[in-house]
Amino acid sequence: MNISGEQAVLDAHYMARALELAAKGRFSTHPNPRVGCVIVRDGQVVGEGWHVRAGEPHAEVHALRAAGANARGATAYVTLEPCSHHGRTPPCADALVDAGVARVVAAMQDPNPEVAGRGLQRLAQAGIVTHSGVMEQEARALNRGFLKRMEHGLPFVRVKLAMSLDGRTAMASGESQWITGPAARSAVQRLRAEASVVLTGADTVLADNARLTVRAEELGLDAEQTALAMSRPPLRVLIDGRLRVPLDAPFFKAGPALVATCAAVEEQYANGPECLIVPGADGQVDLRRLLSELAARGVNEVLVEAGPRLAGAFAQQGLVDEYQIFVAGKFLGSSARPLLDWPLAQMREAPQLKIIEMRAVGDDWRVIAMPLPAASV
Amino acid sequence: MNISGEQAVLDAHYMARALELAAKGRFSTHPNPRVGCVIVRDGQVVGEGWHVRAGEPHAEVHALRAAGANARGATAYVTLEPCSHHGRTPPCADALVDAGVARVVAAMQDPNPEVAGRGLQRLAQAGIVTHSGVMEQEARALNRGFLKRMEHGLPFVRVKLAMSLDGRTAMASGESQWITGPAARSAVQRLRAEASVVLTGADTVLADNARLTVRAEELGLDAEQTALAMSRPPLRVLIDGRLRVPLDAPFFKAGPALVATCAAVEEQYANGPECLIVPGADGQVDLRRLLSELAARGVNEVLVEAGPRLAGAFAQQGLVDEYQIFVAGKFLGSSARPLLDWPLAQMREAPQLKIIEMRAVGDDWRVIAMPLPAASV
């Protein structure tokens, strides 16, 4: 291996560590991205840091503080291009320059239009060697919501479903509780904690008395991560076009929530939760406008936990980025309810998905799948 | 580790090799079990063998021939207790005694009532040290069909299904071709080749012009295994209660077949395929009697490839030992056909399954699941 080959191996090694640090912010950084930083001098890690919470120091600042004078002449690995703008904290690019860092390796450019290459540019202008694109795919995966919001003005939408092995979500009668076991429920708790918004529909809230909260004891996380998750619970959003859910429902009693509805009837919710009026053409809530509004409020990731009708509407409108389907080892039979309310007549209309993984979660299994664009069918 | 601990490690090591050899007979030994044998002297493998085909020498005979005089004082590892009876070949127990083998390790006793411990007994009486139960679970897995037939008088029944991620097998119109891709189809070819019988229903044969044959070029096996598979294709069994499938259907033109039907109407099949009359109480073919009859003819493994109705009937009657479900990355939607025709009203009626594995097969995924007995629900 030549020297540049060896450097590439080392760069990937330290970036992997920076990504590991960044992931510690999984439950707490939003609306900011998850970012980690490692500072290396003479083959030694001299400082590490990760962004914990919006308004608090960025990953680079933590790492530079830990490194102190050792940052001089060192290489800084950051999972996202250092910022160049004055937000709630001063620009990290300046801090790296001031610390005398010799080289900065970024996993990816920051798509935030306030940065977008200017961070690396400022470093280069100060004589620092810069390099971007190391483990970019992994870095992008960690901040899919932030990236989608910056690049498309929409949050990343993950739809969680629970079904039997024959693709059914409930009996015809609606009976459905406890299809999956405790390990799957704990995984769903972590999905909720990761999300900026947990979104549901009136059917689910009325039928199951669902609250869609995060419960510390079910997260299955260590104390630090549990505390971070509980310090920043996701906003619960209820889609209820006709305001059918009464204010004394457990959903509303469980904490703050936002209601997306169609008509200007929120006077019946006087002193109740905030309402967002987003009527669609078909008398239903306009889901795309709702998502766009949520993105404008800084929402990176939305977890949809809804019945076949609402989940089917998101699917049909092409608004889903990822499905996480928990599969229980049972058959509910041919008269049970479908996975998604989405009638199709011909095979060529059938939406294509890429199944990313299937993995055991306790006695159940989790399938992760991504819709493929219609063009690739 | 003490000496007996080391011996256990070595025993498992050589038995694993014997199982690997046994598996080479996967496509050809039926109605006999798959058996492998390794002969070891002074830490050297001096002979190996596996049973290829009924009527041909057993694994032990091949291995003893290869070992020659080196078998004296050696240990023989066999994946199934050596036989003690005169079948189409002389008893292997006698051959091992004659060769002067000092120790025989078997993975499991032979459940064949003609053997059932008597093989090991004969060896012990001749002064040979015998040991049984090494890697028994793996050995049983390799011969599940043979064991089920010996122990229960029924074949092992594997149901192959192909579905979309939302659990559907075809559009409401019946449109269904090519749900899954070439790698999944090749895996199905290997399932057919392994089976003693491929069983289907009139619906499938009429709707899809299905032939259910094994095609050498789609097996994806090496030349030796392909030749073995093609030399012993599975018997194709058609369940056709009312003899709806005409004799000029591609199914019948593709080779010998057996028809299971209800009424004594086989005169319309004069000069046609063999018919088996197994009427059930409900005007349908009695599936359990059919399976029992197949077992009596030496059928170890049945692969069911049928539509939701017939597959659902096997499922409802508790006749399924394993499901292999090929899952395509698409949604067919809520009006498409179910996985199994099996209407259930209440969750407590829902049959439980243990999902054994989910694994990628090309662009599709394969789910292997086993029904759990109702008692464990």
UniProtKB/TrEMBL annotation, chains A, B:
InterPro entries tied to this protein: APOBEC/CMP_deaminase_Zn-bd, CMP_dCMP_dom, Cytidine_deaminase-like, DHFR-like_dom_sf, Eubact_RibD, RibD_C, RibDG_C, Riboflavin_Biosynth_HTPR
A GO biological process held by the record: riboflavin biosynthetic process
Protein name listed in UniProt: Riboflavin biosynthesis protein RibD
A family per Pfam: dCMP_cyt_deam_1
Organism superkingdom: Bacteria
Gene: ribD2
Highest classification ranks of the organism: Bacteria, Pseudomonadati, Pseudomonadota, Gammaproteobacteria, Pseudomonadales
Keyword Oxidoreductase: yes
Reactions that this protein is recorded to catalyse: 5-amino-6-(5-phospho-D-ribitylamino)uracil + NADP(+) = 5-amino-6-(5-phospho-D-ribosylamino)uracil + NADPH + H(+); 2,5-diamino-6-hydroxy-4-(5-phosphoribosylamino)-pyrimidine + H2O + H(+) = 5-amino-6-(5-phospho-D-ribosylamino)uracil + NH4(+)
Cofactor(s) demanded: Zn(2+)
CMP/dCMP-type deaminase domain ranges (all copies): 9-131
EC number: 3.5.4.26, 1.1.1.193
Binding site for substrate: S176, R192, L212, R215, E305
List of residues binding NADP(+): A162, W178, T204, D208, G307, P308, R309, L310, A311, G312, A313
Cofactor binding description: Binds 1 zinc ion.
